[in-house]
Request: fold
Amino acid sequence: MTNRVYILHLWVRLWHWGNALAIIALSITGISLHFSDPNLPLVEFSLAARIHNVAGVILAGLWVVFVTGNIVTGNWWQYIPKPPGIIKRCLTQMKYYGSGIFKGEPEPYPPTPEVNFNVLQALTYWSIMYMVLPVVILTGLVFLYPQFAPDKLFGLDGLLPIAMVHYIGAAVILLFMVSHIYLGTVGPKVSSLFKMMITGWYEH
Amino acid sequence: MFSTINRKLRGAVALLALMAAPLAFADEPPPSPEELVKIQAANGKCLACHSEAGLKKPPKEGLDLKKLRSHLVHLDTYTESDHGQMACTKCHGDGYDEHPHEADAKDSLSECQDCHARKAMRIERQFDKSVHAENLSETFTCVTCHDAHTMTLAAKLRDPHKIVAQDNKICLDCHDSDLAFAKMAPDKKKRPPIDDIHDWLPNTRLHWKAVRCIECHTPTEDKLSLSHEIQNKDKAEKKCATCHSANSSLNARLYRHLATEEQNKYGFLNSVILSNSYVVGATRNPTLDMILIGLFVATLAGVIGHGLVRAIMTRLRRRKNHD
Reply:
């Protein structure tokens, strides 16, 4: 018999998918803009620039929704790994991904309504959402309003460091997205966690 | 008809001038310090009236101040300009020596091709194909755009910001002003609002501060200088990637005078542009790109490998349980 528990509220799921769509649009257009080549356009440059601008503003808005929603509902607590034994639980989780998962062992810290994420998830999500993404959004906004960028820095255009941080931060998010989508398949069934992300119910 | 004959005549005159004077004025060496002192003293006499100070405190009574206002020269700008070491009388010859100037003095004004014969011939061919020649061939001359008292060659200015400011002002003085546009434009031709017709271009006004109108509105075939074939929207460049790419055409245009300098500052492509602008797609760092692409490929390979091992192990376990 399948047990199911309700884990994710509607607002978290709506935010998550909105965020996902925005990041996918930003990744495709961002890659197209950065590696722009007249002979090999992924998305035509001015179209890519417009999509990137709109999706970027949407992403910034969604980040505000995320932070506000977390404060109002108390959901922010989910992203804080709780002592004791944080490091030990990290190592157990890594060991599971490195070997236990291949042997068919059960997930050591499955999601519950009280604790949605294992320690690795909580730490990663917290870092991405509160450290990397704000930096990418802020530098992106400076890109949108370059008059706020420093005029010159070390004899070079002041937008250069902004662009570099934006590019590296975005690459980190892209790497996170690839791993995140893959780790979505490690539930009881390959589809379990994707289903949970849509319905809010975790089936095991 | 007349304009064709006129143009042919002008071409013939220019050709004659070229043959008669192989060493044109434009190629003359700069004046010696002694000559320069004399030139400046002579120019001072002209500027006694033809300057802001002269307009405020006219040295003579009975001057037509309204007329004078439109014939002022800013000494510092003039001195910095390409013609800044030349005597006013080099171009303003007969009829300008005394005041009041002779009524027909304007007719004896030197023309640009008198000194720039070789250049004028090359430019004339380009200009004839331009949108300005198409619509305004009767009235459009060198000085419509190039004020001989202020122009400085891009090669001399070098700083792209200064080049952009100088050159875009020329275009925008007419194309961003209904009054100035109406003075030149054929009857009934209304000035298209400059922002509206460029609304496809993201960050329009920022582009105009960073690059020149002519980066997109001229073809690139001329290797000696940028072409004078100003093109309208049908022919103008609309592909962003022409500038926004590793092989950016900005190197052959705005940055042509700097492009021979160090090209690989901090390992960036088109690093000569970086001192003034960060151009998405053009000013990239291939080493950083390779590192990030490598990380992306490694992550992708990692998750695909992990997934494959998981799938194989699950299948093996199932088979084992079956047995």
Chain B touches chain A at residues 200-203, 206, 239-242, 244-246, 265, 274-278, 280-285, 288-289, 292, 295-296, 299-300, 303, 306-307, 309-310, 313-314, 317 (CB under 8 Å).
